Structures are given as structure tokens and as C-alpha cells.
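Side project, low priority. Logging it here so it doesn't get lost.
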Amino acid sequence: MIDRRQLLKTASLGAGGAALGSAMPSWASGKHGGALARKGSDVLSGEQLTMTVRDAAYTSGKRHGPAVSVNGTIPGPLLRLREGQLLTVDLVNASSEDTSIHWHGLLVPFLMDGVPGVTQLPVRPGERFRYQFPVRQAGTYWWHAHTMQEPMGHYGPIIIDPAGHDHHGHAERDYVVMLSDWSPLHPHVIMKRLKVGHEPFNYAKTALNDTYPLGAEERRMWARMRMAPSDIADVTGSTYTYLLNGHGPGDGLEFAFTPGERVRLRFINGSAMTFFNLRIPGLAMRVIAADGQNVAPVEVDEFQIGNAETYDVIIEPKGAEAFAIVAEAMDRSGMGLAMLTSRPGARAAVPALREVPLLTMADMGMDHSAHAGHGGGAMKMRDTARLPYSVKTGPGLDMVSANPVDRMGDPGIGLGDAGHRVLTYKQLIATSPNPDAGRPSRSLQIHLTGNMRRYMWSFDGRKFSAVTDHPIRFALNERVRVKLVNDTMMAHPIHLHGHFFELVNGAPDGLQPRKHTMIVQPGGSAQFDFTADAPGDWAFHCHLIYHMHAGMMQVVTVRPLPEDGA
């Protein structure tokens, strides 16, 4: 049995020894650098692969700065695998910082899950680590470091072809579209600015001369809370360049098509901090898979994709020689861009960025009837009497949702009045019965908590400590209904390692969609059913990397382990 306390103690000693050997890390000394990373992924396939991590540089437009490449590219290589194969990957750390690989959405033994401090020691500079596991599923997934190398370029796509025929997703062309964000600032610099400044990257705050549709009383309300209704994203286009397959919006990325063909686009949100709103003006999209799992086709004009989610869509482009793939950041501070083209160089019109969305009463966890009573301070944002005893109150909690309604039917911030068809979780229905159709034997409620001004994030008011004495415990094969309550004004993409869970979204019994990551809307709630069928220790966290780094993470422990006699 793994002793996680000893694992972390060893890791800490290693880190201390490294500190004695050098005055400061490379990112702090300004020495981080390397060859310019190539844009786009090479393809790796087969049963034994090697992935080499290196310090790199990256350039997009006028921005240039430090990055991390894997096999010389950003994103790193596309792994093209087959369901049922045995995969061996040798990770070589030729970079200046610790690294690892997490196989996002893949069902792997927990010691292969790639989370330093939970399932393995970090792979130190100059070291190697071998991952080996059977590939148990098919679909669209991705891999990434579970360290601060992830936002610098240490990520890449995975396509797993099914052992049999895939009639559900048949198409003449098949493309990966990996979304990400990149900043010339090192992640530790960004984290420091988030901790010491209030909304340091929000350049869309309210002002005397703004044009936001807010009345005087609404402005006073936000002023009393010392918040901006435009505080949609912590890190914005003021420092981020939004990438599609490693290409910035001015790089001219193209995907070829012949009119009338069926084209499959596999969208993967590999960004550090950005929700994207995806649309292809002039084309409908049929969503056929979510998080690698097939769903009944849903035709939409736009969908929001949270960090770490994947969606596969089918399009049939015709009637024009080019169409724009628009990945607009949720806060509308920028976009990623590529072109579907029937001939090289063809271009479609690119829509302007839409108006900045504003937070609503629902995002504050209020119902609309409460609005009339908020004058004079009647609206109480931190009524801790509403919380269960399991939630720790203190400076790390600055809001309690008064009306945390189920928001599965919400298309996402800013899309409620889009004027066209936008995907919601309630529309997702699995195409095959879930492996476990049993009813949950118990329920569990977990609160998503934080203090936005102090940049503190947690579950149930408790910041993650890697050497934790309070993991979330499940018995092996236990089935539980989990309710996530968002006591913050930010959307959180919550990811559970090592498992799929079924959304409680109103789908027919046995056909609830299975996902590994779900968005919990601000001030609201969401539920999933979960069978703890993978023994081990598993990370459970918000996939906004700076939220996770600040403390919104826990360990899910499933026992007994096989060696315990189970």
C-alpha cells in the first residue's frame, strides 16, 4: 500500500536538496529558455513510445516568452492508439523543472495516473519514468503534465480507435482541434499576481464611461461587494494568446475539406484557465461525443467547452469555400481562430468579439425575487448558517450561495441570449447503457468554496494539503450520488481522475451521459452518480490550474486495494 505521507516527505527532501544546489529555480532567475517550439503535433503510434520534455521558447504575433515542448512541439505529439493495446511510454525529462504525465480521461492503474504527491514522485530534471498500462477504451482524450509545466505547453491530444467499427462517428476527414492559452509570463509570475492583486488581468472593469447596461442601484450593489460584474475570467487576453493546435489567431491555420464531405472535429480544451465558446458561423454542428463517450447526436450552432472537456462534432461544409472556426474566450477578451478551406488560402469573414458578458443574480446564488431586497445591505452574501457542518468557515470563504439551484440546463456564462441553438448538459444522452445501472446507496455533498479577493480556493472550505489526513473516502464498487454546490461567482470545471461519472441531467434511466469533467455554474449546483470501481488514490480538483494550485483539490480514496485482500 502506498504511504502518501512518506511519498510527499521524500519529494520534499528532494526539492530541498535541489534548492541547495541552485540559488533559485530557472523561471525566477530568468534563465529558462530553449529552442523555439514548432507549432502543431507530430503523430506517435505503436506500443512503445518516448516523450521528451524540454525547455523551449514560443512566439505568436508580438509575444515571445518561455515555454515547454514535448518532442519539440506545442502541443506535444498526438498519440494515436487502439483500444485493447498495451501502451508503454518512456518519459524523459530534459527540462529544468519537475514533470509528469497525467492521462486525462483514461482508465489506468492509479500508480500510472501521473500526479506528483498523490500517485508518484515528480520526475526530476535528468530522470526518466516509464508508464505502462492497457488501453481500455476508445474516443478523444488528452495528456498533460500535472505540474506548472502544463500551461507552458506540456500537453497533447489522444485519439483511441475502437477495437471494432465506429459507425457512430464515420467521416471522410477527421481532425483534432486542441484549444489552449499561452502567456509570455511564467505561471509562477501569474500566480503571484493573482495572489497580491485584485483582478489584475481584468481590463474590462466598470468605469464612469463604460457602456454596460447597469442601473445606478446595480452599480452601487457591485461597489458594496467590491467586485466587478465583468469578473468572468481570472486570466484574460491581456496576457493570453489563444491557440488552436499551437497556432495563434494570426498564424493562418487551415483544415481542408471538399464540399459535401462529412468532417469530424475533435475539440479538446487543453487550456490552463480559459472556457471557450465554439462556433462555425454558417455551419451547424452535430455533437456526437462528450469526454470521449458517444452521445445521441445533438445539432447546435454553438457550445461552451470548459477546461479539460472534449467534444466531437460532425459538420458537412458546403455553400462557401471557407468557414471560420471561432473559439471565443468566455470573457470575450480574445479568440482562437482557424479556417476550414476548400482551397489553400481561402478565407471566411471573422466575426468581431461580442460584448463582455456580465454576472447575474443567478451567478451570485440569488433568485430574482431577492434583487428587490438588496438595497441598504439586506442582501447577505455570506450567510454561513446555510452551510452544513462539514464546511469549514473562515477567511477562505467569502460567499455562500443562497439559492444553489441545478443549472445543468444553463448553456454557460454569456450564452443565455445567444439567439441560436446552444448546447446544454441536459441535451446529452448516452448511446449505450451505463455499465452500472444500480441506484446510489448514499449521497454526498461537496461545496466549492473560495475567497476571490484573497485568491483562496478550496473544497468545503479546506485548502488541499498533499499530505492530507482527510481524503474523500469510498468503498470499492460503492455507488454514490454526489452533489456539487458552487459557493462562488465563478464557473469551475471539476475533474475526477480514474473514473467516469454519470450526469444527473434528466436523461432516461441507464442512458445518463458519462463524463470525466463537468462544469458547475456560478452560484448553482450539479449532481452526478459515481461507482467507485477503481481502487487507489485519485486526484479530484478544479481544472482551472491556478484554482487547483491555490487549493481547490482533494484526494479520492477507494479501498480496499487489491493487496489488502479484496
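Brief comment: The helical segments are 4-21, 26-29, 187-196, 216-225, 545-550.
Revisit when time allows.
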